[in-house]
Design brief:
Largest sheet: 6 strands, mixed
CATH topology of one domain: Rossmann fold
Strand order of the largest sheet: 3-4-12-9-10-11
Radius of gyration: 21 Å
Low-confidence stretches: none
Number of strands: 12
Bound molecules: pyridoxal-5'-phosphate, zinc ion
Order of helices and strands: EEEHEHEHEHEHEHHEHEHHEHHEHH
Number of helices: 14
Structural class: alpha/beta
Length: 409
């Protein structure tokens, strides 16, 4: 591991080693891991398999024995020719994070943050979550032999994700309201109970793992940078982490350029996209956010300062999409490319369609859409899907109904 320090994202102050918590004690800003990359050369990575830990020199874990892993990262970067043709794009790729051990990109961050927790001697971990962070933490804490407490918004977590959390034996606490209320509760709990280590994306070690998504994209494109990277945005940890990753590869002279970062939010849960569109430097939280894409149903995203900076520095943008657009994109990706993603992930495709329709991306640009989670996590779309299929309600009982079947095939 190369040398790093923790630093405040706003005032640049470095917290003392004894300071607890994940906010700057001076200004309340977010903390960030900073590696000293000056004069550093690219390690000899080429023989290592594509994975999060391929990049261990620039991950903040000191000892190899601390690493808690389930083989995360190394996900496919799929060229999408059929979908690309439909959108009039020649070089469209999907980086499919549903291929991670618990089915979402959260595993990239969790393997690093749990390893850090182990290195720091923590025994109990805590998070608030719309589902995927909880599913990931549940698995990794089990793997590490730690106790795990998750706070989720009552009745608003997709079925597959709840199943994962319950299966791995976490303590589940349901909080009335949305993710934002669950997160507030988690902050209070972490403050009161110092034995509970907070694993939300305020935890800068998680974002370090997530930055490897950018490293992998660069490696999979033979050190060429895509022109545009599009991600769904909830709390904004991932888009900021991916931007950090591209920036670090550029500092190491592995890549020459950085992509434009484009964040997609659901129309009724879009505090960041609204701030970007209005060219404002701060966000206004959304009360009672609504969308079927539960993973991005967040009204008060904690990482917003990092997101606004990433979008501005990269000359990127943000866009909103409706639930109908999200569901349509989900089906298109599944039927045209064989890639099944959860609704929040399909927001990146829906957003691209909208940007393309408005001529804000060119036909020749290299575009990577990040699909963040696996489709099986959220089976609630099934009913809607089947209703739209002709013939589904036919029951085959005799020869005449077989004839009816022939007519619909
Ligand atoms: C967590 C999550 C997001 C949002 O990521 P942020 O880092 O909170 O912006 C998007 N899609 C899926 C599937 C997720 O699990
Ligand atoms: Zn500060």
């Amino acid at each position: 591991m190369w040398h790093y320090k923790l630093q405040c994202f706003d005032c640049q102050r470095e917290p003392a080693a004894s300071e607890a918590g994940f906010r700057c004690k001076t200004c309340g800003g977010l903390l960030e891991v900073k590696f000293d990359l000056k004069g550093k050369k690219r390690p000899s990575w080429d023989r290592r398999q594509l994975s999060v830990w391929k990049y261990r020199e620039i991950l903040p874990i000191e000892k190899q024995e601390s690493i808690v892993s389930l083989a995360e990262g190394g996900t496919g970067l799929h060229r999408c020719k059929r979908l690309g043709r439909k959108l009039g794009l020649r070089k469209l790729y999907v980086k499919n994070e549903g291929e991670n051990p618990t089915g979402s990109f959260k595993d990239r961050g969790m393997t690093v943050a749990i390893s850090k927790a182990k290195e720091l001697g923590k025994r109990k971990v805590l998070c608030a979550s719309t589902g995927n962070t909880a599913a990931s933490l549940a698995a990794y804490s089990a793997r590490a032999g730690m106790e795990c407490v998750v706070l989720v918004p009552k009745g608003k977590v997709a079925g597959g994700k709840m199943l994962q959390v319950a299966m791995h034996g976490s303590k589940i606490i349901q909080v009335k309201g949305d993710f934002d209320q669950a997160f507030e509760t988690a902050l209070v709990l972490a403050e009161q109970r110092r034995d509970l280590y907070l694993m939300n994306s305020l935890n800068p070690f998680r974002l370090e793992g997530q930055k490897t998504l950018a490293f992998e994209i660069s490696d999979q494109l033979d050190s060429k940078t895509p022109d545009i990277v599009i991600l769904p945005v909830g709390n904004g940890g991932n888009i900021s982490a991916v931007w950090k990753g591209f920036s670090e590869f550029q500092q190491l002279s592995i890549t020459k350029t950085r992509p434009r970062m484009i964040g997609i939010q659901a129309e009724k849960a879009a505090p960041i996209a609204k701030a970007v569109k209005r060219r404002e430097n701060e966000i206004l939280p959304v009360h009672n956010p609504q969308t079927i894409a539960t993973a991005i149903r967040i009204g008060s995203p904690v990482n917003w300062p990092k997101v606004l900076k990433a979008i501005k520095e990269s000359k990127g943008t943000a866009e909103t999409v409706t639930d109908t657009e999200i569901l349509k994109a989900q089906i298109e990706l599944a039927t045209l490319e064989g890639i099944f993603v959860e609704p929040a992930s399909a927001a990146s495709i829906a957003g691209l369609k909208k940007l393309r329709a408005n001529r804000r991306v060119d036909a020749s640009e290299t575009i990577v859409c990040v699909t963040t989670g696996h489709g099986l996590k959220d089976p609630s779309v099934l009913d809607r899907l089947l209703k739209s299929q002709t013939g589904y309600n036919l029951e085959i009982t005799d020869r005449t109904s077989l004839d009816a079947l022939e007519r619909v095939l």
